[in-house]
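Much of what follows relies on a compact textual record of a protein's fold. A record is reproduced here so that you can trace the correspondence yourselves:

. . .
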Amino acid sequence: MAGGDRRTFARVWPRVAVPAAYIPCVDGSSQVRVSDQERERAAQELREHFAAGRLTEEELDDRVQRAYSARTAQELRALRADLPQLPLSPQEQKAALAARRSQLQRRLIQESGGGLAVFAICVIVWTTSGAHGQFWPIWVAIIVLIPLLRNAWRLYGPAPELDRVERELDRRARRDEYRRHRRGGRC
């Protein structure tokens, strides 16, 4: 686009800052059309509520019929609005655990990366100084690896402690944020 075209476009479509109060709130998920699979899942949930004694047979028939004729996510939510949330299936629990474990693993690796960079610098200093004597950078590696291995055991050990790992990572993040704030926002 040429410079003249941009100016013309800017005059036609000026950038205007609109306060948030004037922007209409649109819940995009309420008017989204649902698939046959989502309708079937909602009908199955209604059957499970019937099996638990929360719905009568007439209510079940009516709600299942409305579930199969629903077109939007809002209509499906309205069918289940007065019913409690069903517990997750074993497959859903496994998927949620795997996703959470993966997210915590990424955070652990990111936080350990800085320590490993320090170790690499120490190795470079050791080798450029002649690599004489004891391999002292190993002490830096041990200091970096102990928390990493401890948290890896907590993530993948026989009794995973995901909440504990998450609390420790959050504590570190708060501590680092406090230190940055104390230094006046410098990085």
Q: What stands out?
A: The chain has seven helices and no strands. Residues 1 and 9 are 10 Å apart (CA to CA). The helical segments are 3-12, 36-51, 57-69, 73-80, 90-128, 137-156, 162-182.
